[in-house]
Amino acid sequence: MSSRAISAGVVHTVPVDLRRVLIANPKVLAAWEDLTPLARNEWICWVLLPKKAETRSQHIQRVQIRAVGGEAEAVLLAWLHPPQGQGTEPFGPLGADHPQQSVEMSDASASQQIDDIVRRTAGWRGERLSQLRALIRGADPGVIEEVKWKKPSRPEGVPVWSHDGIVCIGEALKNAVRLTFPKGAQLRDPKGLFNTRLDSKTVRAIDFHEGDAINASALKALILEGARLNRS
User: Fold this and answer.
1) With contact defined as beta carbons under 8 Å apart, do 200 and 45 qualify?
2) For 173, which DSSP code?
3) Which of 152, 154, 160, 91 is nearest to 121 (CA)?
4) Are 201 and 193 in contact (CB under 8 A)?
5) Quick check: 11 and 41 in contact, CB under 8 A?
6) CA dist list (Å): 123 to 117, 141, 156, 214
7) What single DSSP character describes residue 197?
């Protein structure tokens, strides 16, 4: 088999059968490489999910179909929010617009960019994003602010908080502010803060709607646990 490097997910490497398909089809491979590590991880999980070889082959075929734009329905486990108008596509399905390179800048520069993102987010969503940002930074003084996944549909990028790896990602949707934890499925959540992405094998997220209260102590505990998990 070719020794060509294929980009993996945040947690999982590309399985041999999926790798074989990617190498054999340049268009599929190009679409794969356009995904973020988080989105690739979701697709890998979906491919690994079936126990039967036949079903697994069907899942791999679905990756190819999505990559060449053969279907228009929502991506099953990729980074795709609800129907048009209900949110955004921060990480993009297979076959989506080519994202610009992720941006990881110095703390000051990234923080200034997040300042601008907060200012440009109108109304209660901007206030909530600012509140969550302050809570995250207060919970873990070692957290680093980054801005990632700049692309034509979102040139300002997405706020990210990292400590030895991504802890959580913040974004303003149409009707909510979402915090996404790439390794959320491994985190203890005794207060039940996670309320979306619950079907993912790796990711968990919290949607905050207008008027929702923030359980600051429970959220801080998730932040600290996420940072500890990255260091383990």
Assistant:
1) yes
2) -
3) 154
4) no
5) yes
6) 13, 28, 18, 17
7) S
- DSSP-assigned letters across all residues of 13-67: PPPHHHHHHHHH-HHHHHHHHHS-HHHHHHHHHHHHS-SSHHHHHHHHHHHHHHH
Q: Any idea what DSSP says for residue 166?
A: E
Q: Any idea what DSSP says for residue 185?
A: G
Q: How many CA atoms lie within 13 A of 1 on its CB side?
A: 13
pLDDT > 90: percent of the chain: 42
Q: Considering the entire predicted model, what is its pTM? A: 0.59
pLDDT-based confidence at residue 65 (cuts at 50, 70, 90): low
At position 134, the amino acid (one-letter code) is A
Lowest mean pLDDT among 63-77, 167-181, 195-209, 218-232: 63-77
d(CA 129, CA 112): 15
pLDDT at 128 over 50: yes
Alpha carbons 215 and 194: distance in angstroms, whole number: 12
